[in-house]
Amino acid sequence: PSKLSILNTCTPSQLEGLCSFLQLSTCPEPSLVRFCSWLLPLSPALSHTSAAILAQQLFLRRVLALTQPPSRLLVAALTSFCSKYSHPLCRVLVAAVLQGPGEGVQ
Q1: 105 Rama sector, left if φ>0, alpha if ψ -120 to 50, beta otherwise
Q2: Torsional sign, CA 56, 78, 76, 37
Q3: Chain-centre distance for alpha carbon 6
Q4: What confidence score (pLDDT) does residue 14 get?
Q5: CATH class of 5-99
Q6: 3-28: per-residue pLDDT in tens?
Q7: Neighbour count for residue 106 (Cβ, 10 Å)
Q8: Residue 106's pLDDT is what?
Q9: What is the pLDDT of residue 100?
Q10: Ranges for the Fanconi Anaemia group E protein C-terminal domain (predicted)?
Q11: Do 97 and 64 touch, CB atoms closer than 8 A?
Q12: For the chain, which ranges sit under pLDDT 70?
């Protein structure tokens, strides 16, 4: 977890590349919960931009693909992330959900 401080030094494009390299958008849900819990003690906290990128990488695809209620693990990961980064998470997820199908995600 202490190595996550590197997230504070990444540019947005570097962070997106790192997330892609680590395949965070498709990591198993138990790993997602663990990763989100590691973000909580991170100091200094992630910037709004970095947190939004992580929210997009960690949750957007999963949330948009839901066809039934989310798993307990996904809810736990979302709750953990939201406890520290609620505004970036809402900006990413709520905006995407409100756009509706076929309108694209930005």
Answers
A1: beta
A2: positive
A3: 16
A4: 96
A5: mainly alpha
A6: 888 999 999 999 999 999 999 999 99
A7: 8
A8: 41
A9: 65
A10: 1-104
A11: yes
A12: 1, 100-106
